[in-house]
Amino acid sequence: MDMTAGKIHTTEIESEVCGEKFEIQYYLPKNFSDLYKYNVIITFDSQDFFKYGQIERQYQKLREKEEMDRAIIVGVPYPDVEWRNHYFSPNGEHHENMVTFVGRELIKWIDANFKTLRMADSRVLMGESLAGTFAFSVALQYPTTFPNAVAFSPFVDDDFIERFKNQPNLMQLNLYHTIGLEEDDFKTIMGEQADFLTPNRKLNAFLDLEPLEYEYRELEGGHIWKTWKPELERVLKHYLA
Asked: Which SUPFAM superfamilies match (predicted)?
């Protein structure tokens, strides 16, 4: 494995539960050293977090100012839009297996290959749109492994809200949830008209009354990285300051 610091690397992991290989990206910060243990940020739609969110630059800037703890960034990219619907969507045919892959196999691989803190609170899941829904799915399924999850403008429907209602251990979670005020009527990446604002407000109305750590923000803007990118610094500080 390439352990060059300050670079984004790509590798592959064989998943037994899914019966296939997945591409994985990882970023080791500048001055990365085996002398220290690291927090782990896991992003879904990782190529977009690197390209449009520039998450590694935002991390590096905060780290240099000593405004956040040491972390590595590991990500699961999507090969194409159709794939996201099958794997990241809560209604996708491979969704449950993909959640299990992250909750059991991916974290095992991360802890085996990098010097990590290995505590639930030292891990943060992040995603936007369907990948944000997926981040919440993993936290719901594995609250003692991944209590910290961020979803920018997640896809939400009534069935997904039921998943929260059926999780007896919500109090273990620390969620960060945003939605854009212009997301009441927009065109998705699949070319369909959608309203994300209303169902996200419905999820918020439920979570607001539950005993968990929960930050909810309605942002100026739409279903785009221009809206999400400025939130990344806040999120990194929120969990890892």
From this structure: alpha/beta-Hydrolases (SSF53474)
Q: Amino acid letter at 102? A: V
**179 closest CA partner among 212, 215, 206:** 215
Domain locations in the chain as residue ranges:
7-240
- For 181-227, the pLDDT digits (tens) are 999 999 887 788 999 999 999 999 999 999 999 999 999 999 999 99
User: What fold characterizes domain 7-240?
Assistant: Rossmann fold (3.40.50)
Round to whole Å and give the CA distance between 7 and 221.
31
> Do 27 and 70 meet the contact criterion of CB atoms below 8 Å apart?
no
d(CA 95, CA 97): 6
Number of residues written out for the chain: 241
d(CA 217, CA 234): 11
How far, in Å, are 8, 10, 27 from residue 2 at the CA level? Answer: 10, 9, 10
User: Three-state SS for 158?
Assistant: helix
Beta strands at 148-152 and 174-180: parallel, antiparallel or unpaired? parallel
CA distance 60 to 66: 10
